[in-house]
Amino acid sequence: MGYQGSDTKVLETQSAPEIAAAMRSEEVDLALLAPV
Amino acid sequence: MIEAAGIPTVTLNIIWAYHRIVGMPRVAAIEHPFGRPYGGVGGAETQRAVLRAALHMFETAREPGQVEHLPFVWPEPPAETRWHPAEPSPIIAWIKQRAKPQWRSHASGLRARRICARQAELTPARARSKAPACPDAPM
User: Fold this and answer.
1) Cβ atoms of B24 and B13 closer than 8 Å
2) Contact B134, B116 (CB under 8 A)
3) What is the residue-wise DSSP string for B86-97?
4) Contact at 8 Å (CB) between B68 and B61?
5) In Å, how far is B125's CA from the nearest CA of chain A?
6) Which of A8, B47, B104, B125 is an S-S bond match for B39, by CB 3.0 to 4.6 Å?
């Protein structure tokens, strides 16, 4: 996802929906997120 | 949005209290340094154990926003940390140069307010009414 800055518009309207759609199409069962 | 797509998530989180601000469905809290949530470089055994413990939360979590504190302790105290690179990353360099004075100011403001509040507790009520008010909490 990369650095998002303070404006979350791209994250909310583009990045996250595309990531979620890709994960659904790949039949992902769960996601373990690990911010570093 | 990942959760909304029907995919459950667990966040392995170093700053677990942050979830109170942004909201995270499930938090596996771990007291490891930044950049090393799973463990040290080459520490496959610890990394595997952290991974399994975090994955286990998918089975055990029972309510939204649940936080589970994982029982892992970083092997060296912060003052003795040896894994930082000789040249800091751009964000760390920026924090050291610019943000640190702000944090210091914030911390000293908080300290002054706590000391003032404690002094007010110990001061008799009659004298307290003549004392200057404690400073506001810094933003």
Assistant:
1) yes
2) yes
3) SS--HHHHHIII
4) yes
5) 47
6) B47
Contact B2 A20 (CB under 8 A): yes
Contacts of A36 in chain B (CB under 8 A): 34-37
- Position of tokens 């307010």? B113
User: For B78-129, what is each residue's pLDDT tens digit?
Assistant: 677 676 677 887 877 777 777 656 665 665 566 566 666 656 655 555 555 5
Give pLDDT, residue B100: 58
Contact A34, B47 (CB under 8 A): no
DSSP A1-36: -----S--HHIIIIIHHHHHHHHHHTT---EEE---
Please report, as a single letter, which amino acid is at residue B69: H
**Inter-chain residue contact A36 with B8, CB threshold 8 Å:** no
